[in-house]
Specification:
InterPro entries: TgpA-like_C (IPR025403). The chain has about 220 residues and is an all-alpha fold. It is about 65% helix and about 0% strand. It folds into 2 domains: about 10-90; about 105-205. It contains 9 helices and no strands.
Amino acid sequence: MSALIWADAPPLTPDADTAQYWLRQELSQGIYQQKESLFERVLRWISQWLDSLQLGPVSSLAPLIIIIVLVVAVVLAIVIAGPLRRRALAQKSAAVFDDATTTATQHRQQAQVEASAGRFAEAILQMFRAIVRSAEERVIISEQLGRTAVEAAAAIGQGMPEYATELTRAAGLFDTIFYGHQQATRADFDQLAQLDQRLTKAPTSQLAAMDGGTP
């Protein structure tokens, strides 16, 4: 039935048998023969459950149906949207390294050279690489070419929850600078350099991440 017909017609109050017949007729159309999504299966289960209750005309159950559907939608959003969002965020993040030979010390030295020359964008990229390479050298996380900034921050943060927020922010800064979405500043570089110093001084026992590192 088209939306126009529903808009012009008076409210319908079918009995249970008529409602089930209409539902079967509607679902028999080709568009419904495709593979059901999880949400569609849940809605079908709700419909079957309500039918089994035999509570009278469908119209009298409308408020209950709406409430149940909303609750299910919220639950599915929490269960599904979270992992999808994290996956999408990781996919948009830039890879930290394109080689496996530069040491953390070398990255730090290059960062200072770039900062002294006023090239803060490159200085920030090098300083974040120093943070990640230092974590690899200390066996806090495993060495992994192609790891993104978001993934690296999450891996290091597993063993140091007190720095997790700063690491996430640092990864975001790395990505925005890498993709040219933000103007790099001296303040951004100094903040990242200070984070690197604090992480370097932190005892290894505090940083034992679940990424394969040892205390």
